[in-house]
Amino acid sequence: ATHTLQPLDVSMFKPLSTAYSNELTSFINTSQGLIAMTMRDFYRLFQRAWIDTMRPQLILSAFEATGIWPLNPQRILDRFHQST
Prior knowledge:
73% of the residues lie in helices and 0% in strands. By secondary structure, it is mainly alpha-helical.
């Protein structure tokens, strides 16, 4: 249940994964699957997804959503009660 207190897991990595999947799907559709993906392509696609999702305001809201900052003990306790 400790993952409920990890703000990046809670609010950041899922949107990053979704954004990267969207970039990858677009790449595959554009190339019609005929072009091999290189490391250069990976970095370009991942960078776009990263820029779209890892914004300062979203990172701050991730910590707020978990109750870590500003400290909200009740929100933390509620999250543990939900996971049991």
